[in-house]
Amino acid sequence: MKNFIGIAALLSCSACFSSSDFKPTDDEVAKIETALQRHRCVGALDGWRRSYSRMPVFDTADFDAGGQGDELRHPDRFDKRIVELRLERADGRSIMPGRRDLKSYDDFALMECREPGCLGGGYMIQRDELAIECGKR
């Protein structure tokens, strides 16, 4: 019985991760964008370039090797429960409004995004909760 419980716990935890899918589903993005439109720091989405990615999961070996060399650690698992997001204020020239179609997680991780024209945050899917870092806007 104890082995069954341990195996069940392991399987339920492994269901939280996706092997390579860093992109949230269209339904998840629709929920996020509905919440963004209601947020006091965002409002109308046509003024923002929006990027979404699932939260990467690193193991202890990634952290142990983290200070060695200049190479970027590439996650191979992503948490299905959390979506990271980045919003950049569109200027109509170099930053166009709309969703960014990211080809890999590196496109998200290497994105430069600075205040005041940038917001970062996350969306907790199971709790249907949006968290955005926007100060006193």
Structure described in brief:
This protein has 137 residues and is an alpha+beta fold. It has one domain.
Descriptive account of the structure:
With 137 residues, the protein is α+β, with helices and mostly antiparallel strands. It has one domain (2-133). The protein is built from four helices and six strands; from the N terminus they run H-E-H-E-H-E-E-H-E-E. The chain has helices at 2-14, 26-38, 60-64, 105-109, and strands at residues 17-18, 48-57, 77-89, 98-99, 118-124, 129-133. Strands 1, 2, 3, 4, 5 and 6 form a six-stranded mixed beta sheet that branches. A hairpin with a 4-residue loop joins strand 5 (118-124) and strand 6 (129-133). The longest helix is centred in the N-terminal third of the chain and has 13 residues, at 2-14. The chain is globular, with a radius of gyration of 17 Å. The N and C termini lie far apart (54 Å).
Low-confidence sequence ranges: 1-12
Distance between the termini: 54 Å
Radius of gyration: 17 Å
Shape: globular
Portion of residues in helices?
Answer: 25-40%
Mean pLDDT: 78
SS-based class = alpha+beta
- Counted up, domains total 1
Could you give the order of the helices and strands? HEHEHEEHEE
Main sheet summary: 6 strands, mixed
Task: Draw up the topology in text.
Layout: H1 2-14, E1 17-18, H2 26-38, E2 48-57, H3 60-64, E3 77-89, E4 98-99, H4 105-109, E5 118-124, E6 129-133
Parallel strand pairs: 2-4
Antiparallel strand pairs: 1-3, 2-3, 3-5, 5-6
